[in-house]
Amino acid sequence: MDTFTIRDLRERTGELVRDAEAGQLSMVTKHGHPVFVAVPFDETMLREGVTVALAIKLFDSEVVSLGKAAKLAGVSQSEFIDYLGALKIPVVRYEQNELEREVAAFE
After folding, report:
1. Tell me, what's the pLDDT at 107?
2. Which secondary-structure segment (H or E) carries 55?
3. 77-86 vs 50-60: helix axis angle to the nearest 10?
4. Which of 46, 45, 47, 69 lies closest to 56 in space, CA to CA?
5. Around Cβ 24, how many Cβ atoms within 10 Å?
6. Nearest-10 Cα torsion for 41, 69, 75, 83
7. pTM for the full model?
8. Long-range contacts for 88-93 (Cβ within 8 Å, ≥24 apart)?
9. DSSP for residue 87
10. 3-state secondary structure (DSSP) of residue 75
11. pLDDT above 90 for 100
12. pLDDT value at position 18?
């Protein structure tokens, strides 16, 4: 997630728009404090609403945990996992070495 200041909005508007077109969240701050989050307008937002779309983006960007994202979306963790599955967003993410250790433990 990119962060923009109020001043940046004048000078870097194109970058903010490109981020949104690429499906990325951006936060806008004023004097170092968050003012708003720019959420990309996409199919998920149209279908599920702003809060679910924001929760999905925040989870996918690893800004919030699964539990916090589900709470933000106003659904159970199970329902939120279903949203993620429909979008092919992994719920669990392993580092390469973690995955190798897990596989080795089964052998």
Report:
1. 76
2. helix 50-60
3. 80
4. 69
5. 17
6. 60
7. 0.71
8. 89/56, 89/59, 89/60, 91/66, 93/62
9. T
10. coil
11. no
12. 92
